[in-house]
UniProtKB/TrEMBL annotation:
SUPFAM superfamilies: S-adenosyl-L-methionine-dependent methyltransferases (SSF53335). It catalyses: L-lysyl-[protein] + 3 S-adenosyl-L-methionine = N(6),N(6),N(6)-trimethyl-L-lysyl-[protein] + 3 S-adenosyl-L-homocysteine + 3 H(+). PANTHER family: EEF1A LYSINE METHYLTRANSFERASE 2 (PTHR12843:SF5), PROTEIN-LYSINE N-METHYLTRANSFERASE METTL10 (PTHR12843). Residues 56-185 form the Methyltransferase domain. InterPro entries: Efm4/METTL10, Methyltranfer_dom, SAM-dependent_MTases_sf. This is EFMT2 methyltransferase. The gene is Eef1akmt2.
Length: 210
């Protein structure tokens, strides 16, 4: 991938500072990465597989925290969101407050250097964070390896990892997460047709930690 500002902390700090100001001004929670259907897809999978409502869930790069709010509305009780941008966590705290979802825990954490207490999760969810790391102008390859190592540390054995990406194909993600994870399922995403070939602009996979 070509390095991009989308892979820098400065970009996301500035973006969430703007979204925080907009929320305070007009109550708009901001962008939902990959749209609402991406959240529905995740929740449907959890419900279909009867994942217990008390399972511990970590949203990696939670942003505005809207996914956690939707999970809480679906009955999930043990929810944590992390983001390395303090402005993102401030925004997600405001959204949590507005929705009166006091059971959602939020922390400023860099997933590439997680604190010791960030561990023991049954489910980890990523919508776009691995994509952003892949665009980091500073050693993206090394940071992707750190990401996989962190995931192995925080996710319980047999735990589920649900990832949504617009940068990576299924085959590429299988290669990136081959150490310690096995593919369970590819989730259906919108298809497009171009030049007589059908493809997906978004990839959504479910892995299980070995």
């Amino acid at each position: 991938f070509s390095p991009s500002v989308l892979g820098t902390r400065e970009h996301w700090d500035a973006a969430y500072e703007r979204e925080l100001q907009t929320f305070q001004d007009i109550g708009d929670t901001g962008e939902i990465w990959f749209g609402e259907e991406s959240m529905v897809r995740i929740i449907r999978w959890l419900e279909k597989h009867k994942v217990p409502l008390d399972s511990s869930v970590l949203d990696i790069g939670t942003g505005n925290g809207v996914l956690l709010v939707e999970l809480a509305k679906s009955g999930y009780m043990n929810l944590t969101g992390i983001d390395y941008s303090p402005s993102a966590i401030q925004l997600s705290e405001k959204v949590r407050e507005k929705e009166a979802m006091s059971n959602i825990k939020l922390k400023v954490e860099d997933f590439l250097a997680p604190s010791a207490e960030l561990s023991g999760f049954d489910i980890c969810i990523d919508k776009g964070t691995f994509d952003a790391i892949s665009l980091d102008p500073s050693d993206a390859v090394g940071k992707r390896k750190l990401y996989v190592g962190s995931l192995c540390r925080v996710l319980n054995p047999e735990g589920f990892f649900l990832i949504t990406s617009c940068n990576w194909t299924k085959e590429e993600l299988l290669s990136e997460f081959r150490e310690g994870f096995e593919i369970l399922e590819e989730l259906p995403t919108p298809k497009f047709c171009f030049g007589g070939r059908i493809g997906n602009s978004v990839t959504a996979l479910v892995f299980q930690r070995k």
